[in-house]
Each structure stands twice: as C-alpha cells, then as structure tokens.
Design brief:
Helix content: 25-40%
Structural class: alpha/beta
Oligomer: single chain
CATH architecture of the largest domain: 2-Layer Sandwich
CATH superfamily of the largest domain: Dihydrodipicolinate Reductase, domain 2
CATH class of the largest domain: Alpha Beta
CATH topology of the largest domain: Dihydrodipicolinate Reductase, domain 2
Largest sheet: 12 strands, mixed
C-alpha cells in the first residue's frame, strides 16, 4: 500500500476499529494493569521538550517514555538520540497514526502547532490513550467542544497545558476573592504585553526543508505553503502563530494562560454572552495576519473580562534598544492578571506560583505562594482515574481557549474606524473606553497615527453560551469551525 493511501486508510478505518473494540470500561483498566505508565510525546521541537523533561521527572513514580513523534525528521532523530543518551530507548514515528497503533502506550502528550491540537487529542482518545494537550486546546470553538465530548464519551483523562491551574497561590487567592474580602469584582483584566517584531514578507512560498513532511505538518489546514520568511525550519516552526490557518495570535499563544486565570477569578463556567474586539497589526508591515495590538472585551453579566495584547514596546525609541526589556506595563504587570475589585485588586504579575492583594491605596495586604507540578498532577489523575483530580480538566481548557477564539472572530469581522467612532461605540462599557484610551496612547508613543493607520473595530457579537453559537450572525458562526482537509477531519460524531 502506498504511503498516501495508507494514511487515508488509517484515518478512516483505524479510528473506527479502535472505537469498536475498546470501550471506556476496559480502557480504564489498562493503566492499572501495568506497573509503569507508558508515555509518548507528539511534537517536541519547542514546548514539547518540556513535556519530555516533565515526564522524565516522574520516572521514579513509574512513568516511562516509550515513543516520540514529530513531522520533522531532524527533530525526531535528535530527540531519540538525546533520550538514548539518558538510557531511554524509545520508538520513533513521523505520523502519529502509526504511533497510536502501539499497544504498549497509555498516555500521549501533544505540543504540535495549534491547528493540530484538537484532532490529535481526539484521535488519541479514540485509540484509548489519556491525553495531556497544550494550550490552546483547539484552533476553533467547535473542535474544542468535540474534544470535550470525546474525553467524556471514552472516559479518558485529559489535561490542558495551562500550568497556572496547578498554582496553589492562585487557587487560594481565587478563594479569598470569592469570599468577598475585596468586595465585588469590577473587572477581570488579562495582559499580554510581549515583544513581537515583524516576521518579514517574502511574497513567495516558503522553502520547506526536505526533512519536514509538510503534508502531515499541514494536517487539518490547507496544504498551501505560506508566504512568510522560512528558508530555515525555525520560521515555519514558529511564525505559524501569526497566520489564521494555523495559529490564533498572541491570544492563543501567551494570552490563553492569562485569559484562563482571569476567568478563574471571575468564576465563569461558560462563554460570555457578548463579545467585541478592537485592534490591528500596526507599527510595521509584514506577512503576519493576527493583530499585534488588541483589546478583547468579554461582556459577562457580573463583570467584564478585558484582555489586552501589545506587541510593540513602550515607545518608538525603545524599538532600537531591546524590546523585551522596554515593554509597557499596567500596575506592574507586563504579562499577568489584575482583578479589580471594590476594595482593591489582586495581581498575578510575576510567576504562577505567586499572587498578591492590594488595597485601594496600592498597599500590599496579602500574599500567596506555592505551586504543584502540572505533569505530576496529570499522572496522579491517570492513576486514580478521576478527572476531578485534574487541576486543568479539558473542559476548563476548552472554555478559556474558546474565549480567545470568539474575541478573534469579532476582530476578523471588523472594519476600519476612526478613534472617535470607536469611542462612541464602546462608551457605555465598563472599563472599555479607558482601556482603549491607553491603547491609543501606547500606539502614539510608537508613532502610529490611528487617524491614518486605522484600527479595526470588531463586530459586537451576541452568543448563546449553552449551545456555543452566535445569535443572528451567520458569518460569525462560520468562523466557529473550519473547512477540514481530508483525511484530517475532526469528526462530528466522536
């Protein structure tokens, strides 16, 4: 059978056969019947490397790496060699469907590009594996919900890679706020002020390195070679973040962590009933599509969740002095969460292992510290077979990922507006006009004139959180999913 035909055969027959022969009941007994928990990692050039090291730390507790999978042969060979030097003899796979045929495999950790997350996790679950999947857990809202359905249907343990959920400090701070110690929450604010320089523009297709299987790399996305710089593998392996076909901008890259923490503090367990976004890709021209400057306003009934993305430094002068050290901040945070309450605020501004409370005068009144190992939490839940033991169950990952997606949908459906028009549109939103004013000021300091290089004001979208569909906007509903490329199709019936 040819390589291509075999891939299509596996996609259509293997998954259905696995679902027919393995039931949630006997799958749940697999790990318990073995002394070791056997783990494979899919995608490990970047974040996946942390998966491997995180699992190796669990080795004394009976965890063993048994396989690696990556579509880049060079990355794969290097990973296998590195583990061999550490005394770990692992199998190597380019196609994860071959990996999923392994009988002696209990868990799969996934750190591929975003467009692969949900499908890879669903396939692994259907093959009887527990899953640790990186954030965002999905590339769009619908496939995230399908992933939750799959985990529930087959009784699999599925952890989201939002490590902040394993923070003892944040957990205690959330409880303290919910007890009313600072009064009612007025605004939950997430911040992602992270330096993002331009990625350039070739105006021609990227040269795909021969060691990369681009058919598999593309997966559910169109197999169309992008036109951003990429004569080296590094660009293809990272700049996908800023293209809609593969990534979700900094909302889905860094911001998902802070979006998740802010929603945790707000205590919201569904998508917001209303959302709007404003922003643009400003300060330079390149092949990137996602905004480097953005506000997302998730309008919950009790209190809004306002998210801010800034990729430009504090000023134009700073652009030649090292962006990473000269970014803006808000109340001391560049990447963080500020929970603004009637009697002060709580800040998560440095690490996930620390949270601080301040009164209305800015005096620190309380501090929390401590965190547990996120990978260890996953392994413990795999052993107990209780998803309630997870600190970041897939449901939580789906909701916070989906908040990033709905914000981007509003933005993508927007149109260019003058700043005066935008102010008029958002004037009645709590904190919206003030946040917008700071954004315009920041752009001005970077010599971006928003009366000429206009911002895109997104569409105000109303959502039915129960069914996770928009009300009265078919264009927005269309962006809740995507057109999948055979055979890499997220199934309607998982």
């Amino acid at each position: 059978m040819s390589k291509l035909n075999r891939r299509r055969f596996l996609a259509t027959s293997f998954m259905s056969a696995a679902a027919a022969t393995l039931t949630p009941k006997n799958w749940a007994n697999v790990v318990g019947a073995n002394e070791n928990i056997r783990v494979a990692t899919v995608g490990f050039r970047s974040r996946g490397g942390s998966h491997i090291s995180g699992m190796l730390k669990q080795k004394p507790e009976g965890v063993r790496m048994v396989a690696l999978c990556d579509v880049d042969q060079r990355v794969l060979d290097k990973g296998v060699d590195n583990l061999k030097k550490k005394g770990e003899d692992v199998k190597a796979f380019v196609d994860m469907r071959d990996l999923l045929e392994m009988k002696d495999l209990d868990c799969v950790t996934i750190a591929t590009p975003n467009h692969w997350h949900a499908l890879a996790a669903i396939w692994a679950i259907q093959a009887g594996k527990d899953v640790y999947v990186e954030k965002p857990v999905s590339h769009n809202v619908w496939e995230g919900r399908q992933l939750v359905k799959a985990a529930r249907k087959y009784g699999r343990i599925c952890q989201t890679g939002t490590q902040a959920r394993s923070s003892v400090a944040i957990k205690e701070a959330v409880k303290w706020v919910h007890e009313g110690n600072l009064g009612k929450i007025k605004i939950g604010r997430g911040l992602c002020y992270k330096p993002r320089t331009d990625i350039g523009s070739l105006n021609k297709p990227v040269e795909i390195p021969s060691e990369i299987d681009f058919y598999l790399w593309s997966g559910p996305a169109p197999e169309e070679v992008p036109d951003y710089p990429g004569t080296k593998a590094g660009a293809l392996h990272y700049d996908w973040h800023w293209r809609w076909a593969y990534g979700n901008g900094d909302l889905g890259n860094q911001g998902i962590h802070q979006m998740d923490i802010a929603r945790w503090f707000l205590g919201e367990d569904s998508l917001a009933p209303r959302v709007w976004s404003v922003g643009g890709r400003l300060g330079y021209k390149d092949a990137g599509e996602t905004p480097n400057t953005q506000i997302v306003y998730q309008d919950y009934d009790a209190a809004p969740l306002i998210f801010e993305v800034r990729g430009l430094p504090e000023s134009k002068a700073a652009q030649s002095k090292g962006w990473s050290k000269l970014m803006d901040d808000y109340k001391g945070a560049k990447i963080g969460v500020i929970i603004e309450c009637e009697g002060g605020d709580v800040r998560v501004t440095s690490s996930y292992g620390k949270a601080e409370a301040f009164d209305k005068d800015g005096k620190k009144i309380k501090e929390w510290n401590g965190s547990i190992d996120h990978f260890e939490n996953f392994i413990n839940a795999v052993r107990s077979r209780k998803r309630s033991d997870l600190t970041a169950d897939i449901w939580e990952g789906h909701l916070s990922s989906a908040l990033c997606h709905t914000g981007n949908i509003s933005y993508r459906l927007g149109s260019k507006k003058n700043p005066g028009e935008i102010k008029e549109m958002i004037k009645d939103t709590r904190g919206g006009e003030e946040t917008f004013g700071r954004m315009v000021d920041h752009l001005g300091r970077n010599e971006v004139d928003v009366t000429k290089d206009k911002l895109s004001m997104g569409v105000l979208l109303n959502m039915d959180p129960k069914v996770e569909k928009f009300i009265g906007n078919t264009d927005a509903d269309a962006l809740l999913t995507r057109n999948y490329r055979e055979p890499f199709v997220v199934p309607h019936e998982v």
